[in-house]
Amino acid sequence: MTSGERVGSVVAPVATGSAAEIEATQFEVRRILDEIGYRVPARLAMLSRLDAVVLHPVTGPLLLASVLFPDVPGGVQLGTAADET
Question: How far, in Å, CA of 63 to CA of 58, rounded?
């Protein structure tokens, strides 16, 4: 058994290939998945796009601030016209 980094109760294998070998393996896996017609499920693709926006270094904090502080002057008002009376 090769020694690797312990992650919880699982021992992660030690990377033995070069970067080029790893990239070649990833390319081959993608080629096989394309060949059999695998597509990322729509839900997973949507959640990945949402993560890209929410975790973005600029838009993420702006989105968080708009949710935490909705009453900032000049901010987006989420209430209805009936609330303003």
Answer: 9
